[in-house]
Amino acid sequence: MPELPEVEVVRRGLARWVRGRSITGVDVLDPRSIRRHALGTEDFVGNLEHATVQDVVRRGKFLWLPLAMNNTLESTPAELPKVALMAHLGMSGQLLMQDPHVQDEKHLKVRIRLSPAEGMPEQLRFVDQRIFGGLFVTSLVPTPDGGPGGLGETPLPEIAEEASHIARDPLDPYFSFEDFYRKVKSRKTGLKRALLDQSVISGIGNIYADEALWRARLHYARATDTLRRPDAERLVEAVKDVMNAALAAGGTSFDSLYVNVNGDSGYFARSLNAYGRAGELCGRCEEMGLHSIMKREQFMNRSSYTCPVCQPRPRNGRW
Ligand SMILES: [Zn+2]
User: Fold this and answer.
1) Distance between CA atoms of 86 and 66, rounded to whole angstroms?
2) Cα–Cα distance, 73 to 88 (Å, whole number)
3) Are 67 and 57 in contact (CB under 8 A)?
4) Active site residues
5) Which of 90-104, 170-184, 244-258, 297-311 has the lowest mean pLDDT?
6) How many angstroms separate the CA atoms of 256 and 3, rounded?
7) How far is the CA of 273 from the centre of ligand 1 (A)?
8) Helix (H, G, I), strand (E, B) or coil at 27
């Protein structure tokens, strides 16, 4: 699965190339990739054709393009339902900007043709090898807190319906520490479970949860109701730091003419301190002259990587 920084790189790239352009045509080459659009191919295409892409917005790993309808009817814009094109990348979904003369990719599923603009590719292509991802048109609804729906170029208090139940992610400028801390304290769970809970904080996957916990020197099984404010503050800062570091690394490894993301964890040159480092020395302990070996433990059918010295396991789950 792409992690949050990868999805943010896609959002930025797309915003640069598709904002303000209208959709002139849509080719659905594989209906499986629009199976989440319940009303079928004709309805999907009908919703997109002649619409203008207003923005590219993201909350957590949800990514959507709010659309403005260029209709010629005498209705005012306020009367039109507000819709967005939702892009779900799944395991292997990619969004590519391409010129028409570029040969179709092997796993090209949907081609969206855009109004010509100087120096800009004319097609947005959805390529997906494993078909877990997909595109669909969805409704935009008012945000529960009245703030912007997510991270976009023009903040509007509307959000794609599917994303409206999830909390803001740590890259969102409207992310609230107080809201996060209140939710964490009220849950009777372990800290890593809370970090992976999209209703507490969105967009954190297994890799960045381990990285942030290591950076904040907290154990994944720490009981959330024992978390003190300074611990929580350190954790949120750690989450933001690991995300921003990944974003900085990814932002340089990606060709600005070519919006691309896939599920390969090797896509971003990650420098990881915890995840995947079982059996290796803890870098922080080593700097302090300590010899501590990182360990891997089973957690929620996956793995958790911790340093037994600087992230000690809480006794009986409590501190
Ligand atoms: Zn350590």
Assistant:
1) 9
2) 32
3) no
4) 2-3, 61, 302
5) 244-258
6) 19
7) 10
8) strand
Amino acid in the structure at residue 210: D
- Between the CA of 203 and the centroid of ligand 1 the distance, in Å, is 26
Do residues 214 and 306 touch, judged by C-beta distance below 8 A? yes
Ligand 1: centre distance to CA 283 (Å)? 7
Q: Between vectors from CA 230 to CA 192 and to CA 223, what angle results, nearest 5°?
A: 35
Tokens of 86: 């939702």
CA-wise closest residue to 234 among 196, 180, 304, 190: 180
Would you say the CATH fold of 177-306 matches that of 4-163? no
- Sign for the CA dihedral angle at 245, 247, 248, 254 comes to positive
- The pLDDT of 273-290, averaged and rounded, is 95
What does CATH list as the number for 177-306? 1.10.8.50
Among 267, 257, 203, 268, residue whose Cα is nearest residue 14: 257
**307 C-alpha to ligand 1 centroid (Å):** 5
> Can you tell me which residue has the tokens 């479970």?
193
Chain length of the chain: 319
Q: Which of 62-71, 79-88, 101-110 has the highest mean pLDDT?
A: 101-110
| pLDDT given for residue 226 in this prediction | 93
Q: Are 259 and 96 in contact (CB under 8 A)?
A: yes
Q: Which residues contact 229 (CB under 8 A, 6 or more apart)?
A: 181
Cα 133 to ligand 1 centre (Å): 38
Q: Which homologous superfamily does the CATH classification assign to the domain defined by 4-163?
A: MutM-like, N-terminal (3.20.190.10)
Expressed in angstroms and rounded, the spacing between residue 295 Cα and the centre of ligand 1 is 10
Q: Where are the domains of the chain?
A: 4-163, 177-306
